[in-house]
Design brief:
The chain has 304 residues and is mainly alpha-helical. It contains 13 helices and no strands.
């Protein structure tokens, strides 16, 4: 997927900014959940707001490309896999497993994605990537340990996390294909727009009766705007851009940096306790992600 005009430096800047936004999303989401905003409602509102802003701006600037008939199914699958199916799997899994266990399983997604991309898109598998990913998973494990050092899970929660992993893989395949034809702006805008109808039935069935309990204030409105513009719109666009510059496989492992951002921000505002174990977890994650981007195998071949 990379070409001669790719700009890996800008791709790395984009992916780091995307991870910063997604790391902050947990703080904003928790703020809304604490003010009686149901999960489906949060996603529905952020997607609707992001779509309204992006369609208005980019339609006016004539930066939205027309979707070709043969690509409509791919766009539909893209939005179905993520954010819809991924959100369903990850969110409902947390009802059955600890967040720490979920974080470790989700950290394995880059491996699942890379294998999927190998079989579907013929992207090269590299041992540095697998080793780096496994090291970063260890870091996520250290970062996610509770004070008593235990994790709890059951089969239903594990299966839901597997749904999230499969959704991430399907999303990666669809994204890589679409970015060969469309700009990150077009892909992100239509991804959010198409996902809205998927959530609407769930909002009407499960959340609508709770809307009278929603606490609308400056803080919750700010959180919704940040989630919409920075996470649902900006971060996905930055991620798509980085994928176009780096490939899906190299970009996806950076999602393991998200817990670092969340921990640092949560610790700064008093929601988390920063421990020595978490400090080492951060260093291990960074080391793993760094290793995954290297091409040591190629260097070894050249030295022979």
């Amino acid at each position: 997927m990379k070409n001669d005009t790719s700009k890996p430096g800008l791709g790395y800047v984009a992916i780091l900014l995307a991870m910063l936004c997604w790391g902050m999303s947990f703080i904003w989401s928790k703020q809304l959940l604490n003010n009686n905003f149901p999960g489906f409602t949060i996603v529905f509102i952020r997607l609707s707001l992001a779509s309204a802003v992006f369609v208005s701006i980019f339609k006016w600037q004539k930066k939205l490309e027309k979707i070709r008939r043969e690509d409509r199914r791919t766009f539909l699958l893209l939005a179905f896999f993520e954010p819809f199916l991924y959100f369903i799997g990850e969110t409902f899994a947390l009802k059955y497993v600890d967040a720490s266990f979920a974080a470790v399983i989700i950290a394995l997604i880059p491996i699942v994605v890379s294998v999927t991309m190998y079989f579907t898109e013929k992207e090269k598998l590299r041992w540095e990537f697998f080793l780096g990913t496994l090291i970063s998973v260890i870091g996520v494990f250290l970062l996610s340990l509770t004070e008593d050092g235990r994790m709890s899970f059951n089969l239903k929660g594990l299966l839901l996390l597997c749904v999230a992993m499969l959704a991430a893989s399907g999303y990666s395949v669809m994204l890589s294909r679409l970015l060969k034809k469309y700009s990150p702006i077009t892909v992100t805008t239509y991804q959010n727009l198409i996902a809205i109808p998927f959530y609407l039935p769930f909002v009407l069935i499960f959340d609508l009766r709770h809307w009278g309990e929603l606490a609308w204030n400056g803080s919750t409105i700010t959180s919704l705007v940040c989630l919409a513009l920075l996470c649902s719109a900006g971060a996905y666009m930055l991620y798509s851009y980085s994928v176009k510059q780096l490939t899906v496989t190299k970009a996806c492992i950076f999602t393991n940096l998200i817990p670092i951002v969340t921990l640092l921000v949560a610790s700064a505002i008093g929601q988390e306790t920063f421990t020595q174990v978490k400090f080492w977890g951060i260093l291990v994650i960074i080391a793993g992600v760094t290793l995954s981007q290297m091409k040591l195998g190629d260097k070894l071949k050249m030295s022979k």
